[in-house]
């Protein structure tokens, strides 16, 4: 990362470089164990999970993990006229005092993948030293890999094929930010920064007009594997759940079915995340034991 900002003075909020994830989920029971275990493996310390009207066992699973100290669980039902995702993020900032230096605002089908030997923690610590308030991490869209039905196995092992770098949806980004430097959210992708810089991973500034999708794509340091479609049957289930940024009555709550055709990208194979697969399986077993005890 090429950073061009002066080193900031000591900040008591830094708290030893700990990092957390904030997400809103709905009916993600088959996938949450892998997603949480994986992000613990790559260095995240804690999770703030908002539950948007789940009925598939997600609620019970998250409550067990909360009892084990893995995460903080919030029931977050939909309300007319309210964006569930944006309101959840804002609730975290306004009603709590997160004790973590960094919070990643991502979804349960998005996996943060470090591409260098720096690792997530070391990279974020370097961002801190240069006064970076928020980092934009570009999507990398993964397709169905030709699967039509849900099968056993980790998501990261089932879906190995993805889009080319310059695919239009990869211009979308999600944000990892220092919560004490945030003023709120423009969208679920873009934060409002009180002070400090808002950069892509290579040091390029995120333009103010880019509310979640810009012209810049950088996957060199960290990429955000977005398993958007999974198999065709899993896509249909996802479509029925609706989109988190929209209230129940919104006409865009249900995605158009032709989005699958656009985002089912399988042009190349990317195995980068698989370096963490065995450690993820070990961590998954550890979490199973934790909630069973």
How does this model look, in words?
- The protein is α/β, with parallel strands linked by helices.
- 27% of the residues lie in helices and 21% in strands.
- It has helices spanning 32-41, 58-67, 84-95, 119-129, 155-158, 232-241, 259-263, 277-292, and strands at 19-25, 46-51, 71-75, 102-105, 110-114, 132-141, 161-162, 173-177, 182-185, 191-193, 197-200, 222-226, 268-269.
- The strands form 3 sheets. Strands 1, 2, 3, 4, 5, 6, 8, 11 and 12 form a 9-stranded mixed sheet that branches.
- A hairpin with a 5-residue loop joins strand 9 (182-185) and strand 10.
- Helix 1 packs across helix 8 (277-292).
- 41% of the residues are buried.
Low-confidence stretches: 1-15
Largest sheet: 9 strands, mixed
Mean pLDDT: 89
User: Rounded to an integer, what's the Rg over CA atoms?
Assistant: 18 Å
Q: What is the molecular shape? A: globular
């Amino acid at each position: 990362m090429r950073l061009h900002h002066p080193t900031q003075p000591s900040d008591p909020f830094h708290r030893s470089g700990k990092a957390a994830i904030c997400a809103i989920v709905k009916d993600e029971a088959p996938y949450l164990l892998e997603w949480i275990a994986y992000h613990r493996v790559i260095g995240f310390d804690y999770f703030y999970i908002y539950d948007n009207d789940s009925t598939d066992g997600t609620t019970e699973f998250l409550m067990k993990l909360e009892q084990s100290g893995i995460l903080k669980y919030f029931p977050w039902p939909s309300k007319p006229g309210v964006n569930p995702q944006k309101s959840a993020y804002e609730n975290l900032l306004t009603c709590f005092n997160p004790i973590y230096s960094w919070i990643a605002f991502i979804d349960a089908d998005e996996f943060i993948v470090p591409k260098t030997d720096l690792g997530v923690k070391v990279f974020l610590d370097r961002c801190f030293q240069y006064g970076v308030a928020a980092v934009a991490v570009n999507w990398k869209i993964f397709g169905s890999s030709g699967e039509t039905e849900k099968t056993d196995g980790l998501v990261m092992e089932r879906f190995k094929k993805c889009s080319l770098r310059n695919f239009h949806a990869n211009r979308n980004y999600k944000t990892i930010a220092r919560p004490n430097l945030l003023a709120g959210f423009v969208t679920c992708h873009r934060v409002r920064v009180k002070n400090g810089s808002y950069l892509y991973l290579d040091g390029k500034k995120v333009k103010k007009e880019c509310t979640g999708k810009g012209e810049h794509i950088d996957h060199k340091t960290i990429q955000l594997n977005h398993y958007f479609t999974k198999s065709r049957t899993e896509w249909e289930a996802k479509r029925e759940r609706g989109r988190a940024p929209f209230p129940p009555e919104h006409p865009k709550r249900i995605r158009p079915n032709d989005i699958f055709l656009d985002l089912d990208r399988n042009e190349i194979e990317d195995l980068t995340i698989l370096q963490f697969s065995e450690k993820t399986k070990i961590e998954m077993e550890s979490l199973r034991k934790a909630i069973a005890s």
